[in-house]
Amino acid sequence: MTDTKTAAQQAFLLLRIAFTVAPILFGLDKFAEVLTDNWSAYLAPGFDDIIPGSADDAMYIVGVIEVVAGLVVAFLPRYGSLLVAGWLGGIIINLLIVGGYGDVALRDFGLMLGALTLARLAWSELGSTSTAQSRVFHSGTGGSVPASGT
């Protein structure tokens, strides 16, 4: 295995872990309120007007969506990474509408680029589950030396 492929595999794994854990933790915190005690302050009034219930109810919905998004990344990174990237895009728009959170929007833009990078890696041969299944090993016992041509 080449150093480049190894590095790409490590990057894929790190990004997959990050975009599984972070959305799940942020989603759970919408209920626990450990990171902040007022998540609803981040919700644009225009969105609050169209979402049923209170702003707190909306943030509970957001929390559930974030947990689900993290789980989709864990099990289906090709689709979950795009889901998280799109979700982050929505968060960025929301924060710019609210105003005063440009620094957080910029951070989320960086996270969105990371999610898109995970998507690119997931859709490459690197993220394919068929690659691992199609490997033929010389030893026949699951050894680590792939057959020539694979």
Helix and strand topology:
Blueprint: H1 3-32, H2 45-50, H3 55-75, H4 77-98, H5 102-123, H6 129-134
Helix pairs in contact: 1-3, 1-5, 3-4, 4-5
DSSP summary: helix tally: 6
What is the percentage of strand-forming residues?
A: under 5%
H-E string? HHHHHH
* Main sheet specs: none
Class derived from helix and strand content: mainly alpha
- Number of strand elements: 0
Helix content: over 70%
Structural Rg: 19 Å
Please give the alpha-carbon distance between the first and last residues: 11 Å
Silhouette: elongated
Identify low-pLDDT runs. Answer: 130-150
Q: Quote the average pLDDT.
A: 87
Structure description:
The chain is an all-alpha fold and 150 residues long. Helix 1 crosses helix 5 (102-123). 22% of the residues are buried. It has six helices and no strands. Helix content is 71%, strand content 0%. The radius of gyration is 19 Å and the shape is elongated. The protein has a domain at 7-35 and 51-125.
